[in-house]
Amino acid sequence: MAKKEMKVEKGVDLQRYMGRWYEIASFPSRFQPKNGANTRATYTLKEDGSVHVLNETFSDGKRGFIEGTAYKADPNSDEAKLKVKFYVPPFLPIIPVVGDYWVLFLDQDYQYALIGQPSRKYLWILSRKPDLDEEIYKELVEKAKEEGYDVSKLQKTPQSDPPEEAEEVAPDTKGIWWIKSILGK
């Protein structure tokens, strides 16, 4: 049986979407450390209409991060289907890796979002704050389920309040976070 087509938000105002988003929950993936906490993404609109992406996570007392670029998958569509491109390894950027970033749900105040992609292998619940009301969380999980996601894979991301700041921890200057993520550690 073919999977139904996912419902994707339309008419998202990228300017309003910019800023910091905290990862409330996600499907585990090999490109994020298993013991990552305070994971977040910061988006900045660039003059050419693309988006600078800074993904950060903290593990073993160090800040790991990767930077990339997001852009509309189809510039003529009003659907919130983006492509995100990162270069790996981040300490020697030579190989481009491109993925899908689909905004499946976004509240009208741009305070929380459900992000997925067509294969349904990745899913993120994001919030402007490091915590999210449990009722809203359950609603987003239900929306993901309706879109064909196996929500039993969702894992909540530990977030401290107030969240750690990059200046407060040692940076991962050797790319250890990236190497560990490739090895699945």
TrEMBL record:
Residue span, Lipocalin/cytosolic fatty-acid binding domain: 12-159
Name assigned to this protein: Outer membrane lipoprotein Blc
Organism phylogeny: Eukaryota, Viridiplantae, Streptophyta, Embryophyta, Tracheophyta
GO cellular component, one term: cytoplasm
Region (Disordered): 151-172
Gene3D superfamilies hit by this protein: 2.40.128.20
Organism listed in the record: Vigna unguiculata
Family, per entry: Belongs to the calycin superfamily. Lipocalin family.
Alphabetized PROSITE patterns for the sequence: LIPOCALIN
Source organism, top-level taxon: Eukaryota
Transmembrane domains' residue ranges: none
GO biological process: lipid metabolic process; response to reactive oxygen species
Alphabetic keyword roster: Lipoprotein
